[in-house]
Amino acid sequence: MTNETTTSTRLAQPAAATGLRLVGCPECGAPAEVEWADHVPTTGDPVELVKLRCLERHWFLMPAEGLQTL
């Protein structure tokens, strides 16, 4: 028996298990995927910046603070 995962099994897994991070779009509230995230140094604590794109094709580059988690 191999340790391969089929596409249907991967699709049935929760988003956290696949590394997918879903949030609400700040403009329309539709589900949005965080395409990438990184911490940026500042004069205070580092800030997490994210790039996200929603189902309505809005995209944002913004601080992760305050994002609505789905």
Entry summary:
With 70 residues, this protein is mainly beta. It contains 2 helices and 4 strands.
Description:
- The chain is mostly beta strands and 70 residues long.
- 14% of the residues lie in helices and 37% in strands.
- The protein has two helices and four strands, in the order ααββββ.
- A four-stranded antiparallel β-sheet has the order 1-2-3-4, with no helix packed on it.
- The chain is globular, with a radius of gyration of 15 Å.
- About 10% of the residues have low confidence.
Query: How many domains make up the 3D coordinates?
Result: 1
Q: How is the quaternary structure best described?
A: single chain
Number of helices: 2
Proportion of beta-strand residues: 35-45%
Indicate the mean pLDDT: 82
Q: What is the gyration radius calculated from CA atoms?
A: 15 Å
Compute the number of strand runs.
Answer: 4
What are the secondary-structure elements, in order, as H or E?
HHEEEE
* Termini separation: 35 Å
| Main β-sheet description | 4 strands, antiparallel
Which percent bin holds the helix content? 10-25%
Which structural class fits the helix and strand makeup? mainly beta
What is the spatial order of strands in the main beta sheet?
A: 1-2-3-4
Poorly predicted segments: 5-11
Shape: globular
